């Protein structure tokens, strides 16, 4: 899917707000940004306004943007096609450690990887828009 309408210069360490919202922030990297955008549409149908952030680099992380969206929305979900250990979720958690907000990390749990069709593996590990929506609702209801 097309994520950006214009082609600007890529900047290492900079995140990009790709959809505006105030109920929850969904910070995604890699192919999970496409799933986050699908989740945005599904959440919007239910009256939930999500702010979608595309984070192309994790190290360095755009900590300023992370802290800003944490303060604005009060809730964060991170989405990555990676182990939840040592990835985007951990980096975001460290960035907001001084002023934490409720947070859920969506990614691959601490298991040995498998081979298979990409979509089947995404579904197996919960790396889908539908799971992002379910987890977002869970976080909002807390």
Helix content: 25-40%
Query: What is the second-level CATH architecture?
Result: 3-Layer(aba) Sandwich
Write down the Rg.
14 Å
Total number of helical segments?
Answer: 5
Structural class: alpha/beta
Largest sheet at a glance? 5 strands, mixed
β-strand percent reads: 15-25%
Q: From the 3D structure, determine the CATH topology.
A: Rossmann fold
**What is the number of strand segments?**
5
Mean pLDDT: 94
**C-alpha geometry:** globular
| Number of separate domains | 1
Helix and strand run: EEHEHEHEHH
- Uncertain residue segments: none
- What is the name of the CATH class? Alpha Beta
Read across the widest sheet, the strand sequence of neighbours is 1-3-2-4-5
> Span between N and C termini?
32 Å
Topology:
Elements: E1 16-19, E2 24-28, H1 32-45, E3 50-54, H2 63-73, E4 76-83, H3 88-95, E5 103-108, H4 118-124, H5 129-141
Explain this structure.
By secondary structure, this protein is of the alpha/beta class. The protein has a single domain (16-141), classed as Rossmann fold (3-Layer(aba) Sandwich), CATH 3.40.50.920. 37% of the residues lie in helices and 20% in strands. The chain is built from five helices and five strands. It has a five-stranded mixed beta sheet with strand order 1-3-2-4-5, with helices on both faces. Strand 2 (24-28), helix 1 (32-45) and strand 3 form a beta-alpha-beta unit. Helix 1 (32-45) packs across helix 5. The longest helix is centred in the N-terminal third of the chain and has 14 residues, at 32-45. The protein is globular.
